[in-house]
Structures are given as C-alpha cells and as structure tokens.
Amino acid sequence: MRFKYLKYLAFALGGASTAVATGALYLYATFDGARLATDLSHFTKQRHQRTLRFDGAVELAMFPRLELRLPAMSLSGRNGDGECLGIERGTLGVRLLPLLARQVVVDRVEADGLRLALRRGKDGKLSAADLLTPLPAEAPLEFNVDRLAVTGGVLNWIDEASGRNFALSDINLGTSRLGRKADGRLELSARLTQATPLTDVRIELQTGYRLDGDAGHQARSAHLAVRGALADRAGVDVDLALAELLLPTDGAPEASGLSFVGKDKSDGRALELRVTAPRVVLGAAGPEAATAEAALRMDGKGYGGQLRARIAGLVGKGNLLAVEKLSADIDWKTPAGRLAGSLGGAASWQADSRVLDIPALAGELGLTAGKSGATPLKIVAQLGGKLDFGRDNGGGKLDLRFDESHLQGSWSLPKLSVPNLGFDLDADRFDADRHLGPIDGATRIDAAALAGLDADGVLKIASLKLGGLRLERLRLPLALHGGKLATTAYTGNLYGGTLEGTASLAEGNRLQWRSYVQGANLAPLLRDMTGREPASGALNLFIDVSGAGQTLADVRQSLVGQARLRLRGGVLRGIDATAALKEWRGAIQARQPARRPYRDAESTPVGELTVGFEVAGGHARSNDLQARSPTLAITGGGSIDLAGPGVDALARLSLLAVAPVDMPLLGSLRGAAVPVRARGALGKPEWQVDPSAAPLAPVKPVALAQPAPPPPRPVAKPAPPRPAAAAAASAPATPPVAQPAPAAAPVAAPAPAPAPEPGN
C-alpha cells in the first residue's frame, strides 16, 4: 500500500517537472529582453521622472541558473539631471514562476562596476530619496534577495549643506539573504578619500545581522576597521567592535559590548584611545549608560603618559544629558616632570544648544620635576568650564593651591575647531628652584615638546624665585604657535629696580633673550645668585643674546650677542686698592709681579663703572671697562667664562688723590696707571700686580663732569722754609680732586712691557 502512494507521488512530481520544464522552454523561446527593458524604463520615467538606459539587450540565461544578464546601464538624476546610478554589467537571479506571469522577483543581485552619485542639497533633501520609498503593489519588480554582491563599486557623496564631499572607491560588498525577514552575514571593504580634511583610508566591515520588519533589526559580532590617513593625520588605525546592536521599530537603539580602539602614529609619537561600555542606549536626548570608561595614552620622545576617565549614571532628561559622576586619573610625564593624580565631579550635555558643562572638577595632583633635587609638589586643584560647540568656543576657571602658593585664573578656547588655549593666571608666589629643581648646566631644553600646541595668555606672579633670584610683580605675556614659545614685553621688579624684555624658544632649541635691568641693587642680587657679594651699587644692565643646545651648558657655549653694564655708586669687594698698592709698592718699583688673595673684609669704592661685552664661544669679552671715583680711576678689560663663571681681567688703577698720611708711601704712585689682574672665580678672584701686561686697545674716556677749579688764593709773603716732615704734617687732609700731580703719567698710560692681551 505504501509503495502505491509513492508511485502516485512520483507521477505527480514528474508531471510538475514536465510542466516547469515546458514553461521554462516556452519562456526562453518567448522571452523579449527589449520589451522588459522598455517596461522598466517606462516605469522609472512615470514614477520617478528619471531616465533608465540600457546599452544592449537584457538576456535570459537558463544555465547554470535562471538569471537576467544586464548590459551596461545608467539611471539619471531626477528630471534627467546627471547620472545617479550605473553599472558596467550585472546579473539578477530571478524566479521562474513569477516571471511567467510577467513579474520580476529578484532573489540574487550581482553588480560589477557599480557607480552611485548622491547629493544632499542645502535644504537637507537627498537626491535619491524617491528611490528609497517602498515599491507600489502594481510594480512589476520585487526584491527577495538571497545574495547581494558588488565588486569594483564607486560612491561619490556631495553635501551642499556642510560643504563636505567624499568618495568611496574599490567597493566590494557581499551579503547573505536580504528581505523583510532574513538572517545572514555582511562583509564590506572600500577606500575612503576626501580632500579637506585630507583622508585616504581603507575600510573593512564584517557583521552578522537579523532583519525583521515587524520586531526590528539586529547586528551581532560587528567589527569595523579603518586604516590610513584620516583627518590630516597619517598612520591612523581604528577598530570598533560591538557584541550586539539592536534597532527596534518602536524603541531606542541599544548597543552592548562596545569597544573602540584608535591609534595614531603621526608626528613621531604614538597616541592610543580606548573606549569601552557594557551597554549604551541611543535615546532621542542622547546616549544613556550606567558606566563607561575611556583611556588616552601617548608615547613620545621624553614625554607621554595616560589619562583615564570613568563616567557613572549617564542619563538623558529631555534635551539634557547628565553625568552623575565623572572621574579622571592622570599620569603624564614630560621632560619638565611628571603630573599624577585624580579629579572628580559632575557634567552635563545640552543637546539643543550643544553645550558641554563641567562646573567643577576637584581633586589632588602631584607634580614631580624631572630634575634631581626638586621637591615633589602636592596640588589641591579645582577647575571647571563650558564647551559651546554651537558657538565653537569654550572657557572656564581654575584654582590651584600648593604649599604656600595660590594660582587662580581663567582659561578659554576661542575656537574649538582650531584648538588654541587662552589663559589669564595669577599666582601669589612660586619657588621654581624648590619645585622644579635648580637651574644649572645640566638643565635640559626640549623645544620639540612644544610641537602641535597653540596657546596665548598672560601669567602674573607676585613673587617668583628662579635661579636663586627673586623677582616681584612679574608679568609674562606668552604665545605658543608653530612649535615656538615667545614672551614679549615681559616686566617685573628686580631688587629695587625694574626688569623688561623679550625671550623665545623655537625649533632646534634655539633660544633668544633680550632684557634690560634698571636701578637694581647689585649686592643682594649677587648674594642670592652666587652666595657672595663681590660688588655693590645701582645696576643698569642690557643683554641681547641668542644660542641653541640640548642643555643649558650647550646654550651658554653657543651664545652670540652683546651686553652693556653701568654701575652707579659702585663698590668692589675683596680688595682695598689703597692697602694693595701699599703692599705692592716694592714690587711695583722693582717691576716684579705680586699676588694678593681675595679678602672678604676689604672693599674699594669705584664710583661710576661702565663696561660693554661681546658674547661668543661661551665667553663675554670686553676692552672698554672704565670707572672713576674721587680717589681712583680704572680702565681695562678682560674675559668672563660663562660656564664657571670665571674671570680673567686686566685693569689699570690710577690714584687721583692720596690721603696725607699715605703720601710717603703712595705719593709717587699718584696718577700712575698700575696694571692689576683679577683671575679666578667671578665671585672670589685672586688679585695680582702685573707690570708685564700688554696695553689694551684704546678706549673712549668716560664722560664725567669735572669739578670746578678752586677760587684764587690771595697773594701772601712766602713763609720761611720748614722741614719736610713738618710740611707734610701741616698739609690739608684731602687735597682737591682736580689738583694736578706734577710729572704724573696719564690715567690710561699703558705699561711699557709687551705681553699677550689678557682674557683672549
């Protein structure tokens, strides 16, 4: 009995196969490709006002499967405006039975050389919007695709609203079943190019999917990879992964297992950004997430570190997206030092006005200078502000407290699209030597760390200690652009005087410094800088130098420029000129050298002193030293070794007036130019008389006012002669400065013995 039913089934299937085969042969014999092309062209013209052209006949193939083979074809824009779509050749797999009823049901699409041109107008309308509407019931075309394949495709996108245009080329796309309800996998690869900003990347996408027109759509195990030059950045590597993406028909999209990794190796440094979120709901007001984490890491030559941020309670409220808790961990290292710590607070996002508001981030940071000897600095920080993406700007306040110092002020970003930091900061005091380390020859200079940064602002410090010096009311206008840091027209007070000038640090560690000090008290300045007071007086100093190097010692060796110094009411410490000449009297008469050590208790008034320097090769050289007091005139020159610092100078001392008590010993030296050499440490040189010193180049005399001549004395009878000792005892205590010394040598008279010029 069972075999009887099988026999009936076999006869039925055979009959059906015969009928299908007969229908297929009939279809093949009666198929009119030209008529089908005409019907399709007529349909697109009537419904979309577009022109569909075929460069040949549509062919029907029976083997190895039933399919329509399309020649090169093109579809125009609306009302014949350019080309919207085109292919070099294509294949449409169709079903037999609907085709017998003059209906085209497509179950497989293959396109080679696909061309798409899409445009969004200034009104926001898409040029292909009419093609995306569902087909009417009477349309002779239906899609129920089991496979879609595109090779060598090109897509051009023109956005007239934003002015952003791009092109996708070398498109290769492959999918499984597509339909109202389908389950399959998609693979896509393409090349994305754009002129502004410069972009040339390779894109690869793989994902599984489930399509359900009633319940919604799903993507699973999705992975997007982008490699190449992106947004003017070469060497970009981006990976985006999703465990699942739900697109319900009646709810907000939801993503789970989100992972983003972006890497950038431009500018000789490696940047890496990682973002993870267990679950994100993309609501109408913005994303919502219970938790999310982001980590930014940078590795560069001598600098880098990590910034890790965590958010909790990301909730949308209408147009407001609020973050209940935002925390950030900072660990950043630069050649200047390392900054580490944590900040926390709240944040919000206003969707309609596009404003990110972070009212206050508070926490504690630790700053450790990269130089040995620096004291770690604990900073209690509070900062906040707003970023207005609608107006393309931002700004806020900051408040930093450390030790006994307080820094506060404001920051701004005039243009978010072109990041340029502005700031206006005030500090009451800062000890740079303590917290950043002492400044010495080993101090490194790294202008490369300035690359890619842009900033403008003003830093004001009420009291600053730097290099041992104390500056008051310092005002530093700063500008950082193109890898160059410059301060123009900085001002301040320095030991009772004023300070002003300009400085810059540029690519290649090129340093330029121009400064003018006026009326500074020299003694405490030298004491704080060197620990000694080799001189005192009111200082005027002009410096204009430039140099380059990896360390401060290198810069000192390469310095080129000039300097000029004037000292009023000057006093030279370490030597008493009168006592020294007494000690050297015998050596001077015998024209023999003699030494004298530096003596802390001695000093010599030098009155007004001027000297100019030429700076080169790590030395400051001069031959125009001049000084004059009521009792002493000095001329000379020499060299200062900036690395020591050390001094090798030759001065000629001329006594202008001698106290009566010293006349027996020094009377013969009055007006004579005694060559005296100072050699050794700048703050504590050794002195010696050097009769063999060569003459210096002529120098211009110091223009000083001469005292008025004494009034004429009345003529009196000559007194009887007295012994020499009695005459000396009755002489005035201090002879007039302008009183000439008979038979005295000129002030600048050189010693006769030739010798190499000192300090060269």
The rough form would be described as: elongated
Can you count the helices? 9
The radius of gyration computed from the alpha-carbon positions, rounded to a whole number of angstroms, is 45 Å
Q: Strand pairing plus helix content: what structural class?
A: mainly beta
**Biggest sheet record:** 40 strands, mixed
Task: Report the span from N to C terminus.
Answer: 128 Å
Note the beta-strand portion.
over 45%
The level of helicity is 10-25%
| Unreliable stretches covering 5 or more consecutive residues | 1-27, 695-760
Number of strands: 40
Average residue-wise pLDDT: 81
Structure overview:
It is a single chain. The protein is built from nine helices and 40 strands. It is mainly beta and 760 residues long. Among the domains are: 17-175, no CATH class; 252-351; 559-702 and 745-760, no CATH class. It has a 40-stranded mixed β-sheet that branches. The protein is elongated. It starts with a helix and ends in a 31-residue tail after the last helix. The model is unreliable at 1-27 and 695-760 (pLDDT under 50).
